[in-house]
């Protein structure tokens, strides 16, 4: 079997370097390019401390696509860059596997069309941790029977977007399953603006940012005399790698853009 050739954008970042490590350890994956803003010309393996990989960093995804001829782009960059990266990749016939959060539904629809026109697959997963995917799917099931729900997501204080992509995706999955419902007291007033969190798809989402946290979420359900809490914790970024590996393998088999890892899992 030919290895799957992969370029990683955001290669020097917290997630990108973990992805490079994972790719280097898989016989059926081959790293062909590494993109970041800094360290241009330096070997990515040397920069992240895993030994030379013979792949110099570039600050241009276009250059990495042209030189490396990859099959797949793995993107862990920033909300402001990810759309441009996906367009570049798709136009070059390279399948995007994207963990970067912040794309709107309208942007995803356009990118889906672009993938279909090019006859290739793409995967956007707001969370690659298998446990987090299960939490989202279980939350949607629970909401059918316990429709009063709030989400609390907690992340490290370097995160750029709030709420998290995971919280937004959880809200979307729950919204599909439960009846429309007005929660809480109809005359409730916020004395301090933002105290009740953000409102999306019928629920409140609360975002906590603190040093020491990695990525955590609780989905709280309340009913008369009972509470159910679904909770997931990523203690490190290795936790996301089995999902990234699965997405790289699966993206080769599909056409069109898939949003959410649950869509390529047997659930
Ligand atoms: N789906 C999932 O499971 C997960 C998703 N994420 C998401 O992934 C994204 C990245 O997270 P994280 O790794 O923590 O972020 P980091 O800030 O650690 O890394 C960002 C990376 O993007 C690069 N970058 C930034 N600006 C540019 C630019 N202009 N040109 C080229 N490269 C650039 C940085 O390069 P440099 O270092 O040189 O500045 C760095 O390599 C976020 O959106 C986050 O929410 C995070 C964890 C899990
Ligand atoms: O920025 C992060 O760290 C994470 N981002 C993703 C999100 O926004 O949900 C996934 C995970 O929670 C870590």
From TrEMBL:
Keyword Oxidoreductase part of the UniProt annotation: yes
Residues annotated as binding (S)-2,3,4,5-tetrahydrodipicolinate: 156, 165-166
Predominant localisation class: cytoplasm
Pfam families (UniProt xref): DapB_C, DapB_N
Role summary: Catalyzes the conversion of 4-hydroxy-tetrahydrodipicolinate (HTPA) to tetrahydrodipicolinate.
Annotated family: Belongs to the DapB family.
Protein's recorded name: 4-hydroxy-tetrahydrodipicolinate reductase
Organism: Kroppenstedtia guangzhouensis
């Amino acid at each position: 079997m030919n290895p799957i050739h992969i370029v990683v954008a955001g290669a020097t970042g917290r997630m990108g370097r973990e992805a490079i490590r994972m790719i280097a350890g898989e016989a059926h994956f081959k790293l062909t390019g590494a993109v970041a803003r800094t360290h241009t010309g330096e070997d990515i393996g040397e920069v992240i401390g895993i030994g030379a990989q013979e792949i110099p960093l570039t600050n241009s995804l276009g250059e990495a696509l042209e030189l490396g001829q990859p099959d797949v782009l793995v993107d862990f960059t920033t909300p402001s860059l990810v759309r441009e990266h996906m367009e570049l990749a798709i136009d070059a016939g390279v399948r995007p596997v994207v963990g970067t959060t912040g794309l709107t539904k309208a942007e995803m629809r356009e990118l889906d069309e672009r993938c279909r026109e090019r006859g290739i697959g793409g995967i956007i997963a707001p969370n690659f941790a298998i446990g987090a995917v299960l939490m989202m799917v279980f939350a949607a099931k629970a909401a059918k029977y316990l429709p009063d729900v709030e989400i609390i997501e907690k992340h490290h204080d370097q995160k750029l977007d709030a709420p998290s992509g995971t919280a937004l995706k959880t809200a979307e999955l729950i919204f599909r399953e439960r009846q429309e419902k007005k929660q809480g007291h109809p005359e409730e007033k916020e004395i301090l603006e933002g105290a009740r969190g953000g409102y999306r798809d019928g629920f409140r989402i609360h975002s906590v940012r603190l040093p020491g946290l990695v990525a955590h979420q609780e989905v709280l359900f309340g009913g008369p005399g009972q509470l159910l809490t679904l909770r997931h914790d990523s203690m490190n970024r290795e936790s996301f790698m089995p999902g990234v590996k699965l997405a790289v393998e699966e993206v080769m088999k599909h056409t069109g853009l898939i949003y959410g890892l649950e869509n390529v899992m047997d659930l």
